[in-house]
Amino acid sequence: MEQTSTPKSGTESKRVPGQAKSMGNVVLPYVQGTSEQLKRSFSKHNIRVSF
Asked: Where are stretches of biased composition, namely Polar residues (predicted)?
C-alpha cells in the first residue's frame, strides 16, 4: 500500500490576502522611542522589523 501525501513546506506564507509582500527584514536593537519610530517608517515600505 503506497501512501501519497504532499510534502510539507516550511516556507508557506501566512500573509493576509490583501497584504503586500515584504521587501525584506531588519533586526534592530531595542531603544525605547527610537525603535518604534523606525519600525513605523520601515513598515510603510513593507520592510519587516524585529527587535
From this structure: 1-10
Q: What is the model's pTM?
A: 0.56
Contact call for residues 38 and 49 (beta carbons, < 8 A)? yes
Residue 26's domain comprises 21-51
Q: What is the pLDDT of residue 22?
A: 79
> Is residue 40 situated within a structural domain?
yes
pLDDT digits (tens, 9 = 90+) for 13-43: 565 566 678 789 999 999 999 999 999 999 9
Q: How many domains does the chain have?
A: 1
